[in-house]
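Researcher: Going back to the complex we discussed earlier. I've cleaned up the inputs and rechecked each line, so this should be the final set. Can you rerun the prediction on the complete assembly and write out the structure?
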Amino acid sequence: MSIEPPYTLYHPRWYRRRVSVWWWLQKRSYTGFVLRELTSVFVAFFAMVYLWQLHALTQGPEAYGQFLARLRTPLFLALDTIAFLFVLFHAITWFNLTPKAMVVRLRGKRVPDWVIVGLNYAAWLALSGVVAFMLLRGR
Amino acid sequence: MMRRITPLLWLLFSAGGTVAALLFPVHLFLTGLAFPLGWLEAPRYEYLHRLLTHPVIRLYLFVLISLPLFHWAHRFRYTLYDGLQLKHLTVLIAALCYGAALLGTASTAYVLWIIP
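Model: Rerun complete. Updated structure for the full complex:
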C-alpha cells in the first residue's frame, strides 16, 4: 500500500477529515456495532476456559477440583458474568442477522425472515436443553 | 495468499459464530455461573471423564472450542482495524489473530488426543 501519492501544483491534496478513535461513541448505532464486534473477545475467553477445564479433566480429579474452585473466585465470577451478557448479545444479534445473510427460497418464494429467525431460536432452545441435560445428569 | 484464503476465513467465521451463538450461552451459564454460585451442582469428575471417552463427545468439544476461536480471530481483526484505525498493521494483526486461533485449535486437539 502506498502511503503518500505524489502531489503536484496541478494536483491538489485530497481533503480527508481525520476521524477520532472514539468515533463509535458519537452515535448509538455505532456503539452497538462496536459492542457487537467486541463480543468476539468474550467468545474467545470462554473457549479458553473450556479448554482449561478439558486440560484439568485430563490431569485427574484434583486438578478438576482446583478448576472448579478457581471459577468460584470473585474475579472469575465477575468475568463470567460480563462474558455471559456479551455472549448473549452475540447470540441474539447473530440469530436476528441470519435472514439478511442467508436468503432461502422455497418453490421460488422467499422464506419470510421471521421463519428463519424462529428456526434459529428453536434450535437454540433445543440444543441448550440437550447440553443442560447432559451436564446435569452427572451430579 | 491472503486473497485466496479469504472465503475459507469467512466460512470459519460464520461457522464459529453459529456454534458460539447456539451453544456458548448454555455452557457459559452453567459452567461460569450456575455451578460456581451453587445454584446447580457441578457434574462429578468420574462422570465427565467417562463422557470424554466417547469419540462423538471429543469431536463435539473440538468443534465447540476451535470454530469459535476462528470466529474471534476474524471479528477481532476487523475490530482492531476499524475501532483503533490500525489499517496499516494489516499483516501483523492478521498473523497474530489467526495464529492464536490455530494455536488454540492445536492445543485442543492435543488435549483431546492424550485423554486415555
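Model: Worth noting: Residues 103-139 of chain A form one domain.
Researcher: Good, that matches what I expected from the previous run.
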